[in-house]
Amino acid sequence: xxxxxxxxxxxxxxxxxxxxxxxxxxxxxxxxxxxxxxxxxxxxxxxxxxxxxxxxxxxxxxxxxxxxxxxxxxxxxxxxxxxxxxxxxxxxxxxxxxxxxxxxxxxxxxxxxxxxxxxxxxxxxxxxxxxxxxxxxxxxxxxxxxxxxxxxxxxxxxxxxxxxxxxxxxxx
Length: 172
Hints:
About 60% of the residues lie in helices and about 0% in strands. The protein has helices at about 1-5, 15-40, 55-85, 100-110, 140-155, 160-170. The longest helix is centred in the middle third of the chain and has 31 residues, at about 55-85.
């Protein structure tokens, strides 16, 4: 889960991007709602200048500020990986810091389709048209070797077939 929400490496498909955006949106709307609904109960006050204000509400607001910075970091990392998915530079995520443009940037980043196959940022997360190009993508080579080893362990390949296929992958 940490890689899904906080990594800047690799690619991220549209559905996972929108999952991250919606998760953080729900948290950032839900937390203040809970804080303020508790604060509206009789005997509680949210005004820090009020003598009846409790320190818990002040601490909750500080925790919300920290949560906001964490969500910002996560959303930027998701946007960078989403940009990588259609072979764009992650620096385009800086558009998310421009007021008025950030909403449009989120929509554009979230709607552009994935680049088929591998690109300079890794393999397609959906597995669509992932083609091994010799020397271009070590991640794909490792995946092929693991798949080959799994077939050999299940006794679906003879030792000779396994050795030849492994040599071919390593040779490329």
